[in-house]
């Protein structure tokens, strides 16, 4: 087990949702903002209150939640987590030091977590046109610095893939991911697939292969279910690896009220089906709305991503009207060398109308 912690503390990674900072910066009271800066479902699962004793007793780690999750995700085994963030921060220290490939534009916690644990981080990029194509549902090729999509560089020990990628929405086919798992397992490596946004398209998941060596999948309850505040998620993978992670995280990693909420959410198949249908419609409507105002966007079921030369200007003009988006201001190869914006889904017709008016005004400026 690798446990080297050296150097100065790393800077905090920026995420969406910082409404307090937005309110201070733009002088608009917090309650007047429309927050579209995250990819969290704006219509969350309707959790009921837990029984009173859940608030008083310690969480029961053997309450069957792991088994419920394994069945729901079609995985061999599951480990409940205090959000997938717990695994992202801990896992790199459980792996022998090596070389890890991480996309140049993806969820920002992975690279610093692996670097802190002493791994060498290598960046790859998603091949994409400067302005995304209109058919945002189709997967695009995934080169590692130009290699064939089905191959891996021989010097890579670990590969992190967020699928679909946040924020670029790129998706990697199941067959390609399984090919990479086989190649990495043969060299004693690991493929880590973050499926935080996969729930709306479960057929694209590799969770069913998680019993095989060389594969770890992370799933979130915060995105599709809209329950980010309870901080719950799961690791899916070989039992031995999950046991190492469990021992490192310790007991009671997920609180009793959160376990109650997650059990309800995972077992409500009717809500899953209705939500998938709604998200498909809403995400396509958001893409069309952005296109009408000059922002070509790709969509995942929970957000839209728009590279644009003036992404920072759009971000500021919308913020001046109380619309908070997520700005990725560093040009990235995966974004065609451009900065970009991410838009979460409006919760209802009123929110969509407010966004439309703000986009119209921003386009005129």
UniProtKB/TrEMBL annotation:
SUPFAM superfamilies: PLP-dependent transferases
Domain of life, per lineage: Bacteria
Pathway involvement of the protein, from the record: Cofactor biosynthesis; adenosylcobalamin biosynthesis
Keywords: Cobalamin biosynthesis, Lyase, Pyridoxal phosphate
Pfam families cross-referenced by the UniProt entry: Aminotran_1_2
The protein's required cofactors: pyridoxal 5'-phosphate
Recorded catalytic activity of this chain's protein: O-phospho-L-threonine + H(+) = (R)-1-aminopropan-2-yl phosphate + CO2
MF-aspect GO terms: threonine-phosphate decarboxylase activity
Domain Aminotransferase class I/classII large: 70-297
Transmembrane regions: none
PANTHER family per the UniProt record, alphabetical: HISTIDINOL-PHOSPHATE AMINOTRANSFERASE-RELATED (PTHR42885), THREONINE-PHOSPHATE DECARBOXYLASE (PTHR42885:SF1)
Function: Decarboxylates L-threonine-O-3-phosphate to yield (R)-1-amino-2-propanol O-2-phosphate, the precursor for the linkage between the nucleotide loop and the corrin ring in cobalamin.
Name of the molecule in the record: threonine-phosphate decarboxylase
Organism: Robbsia betulipollinis
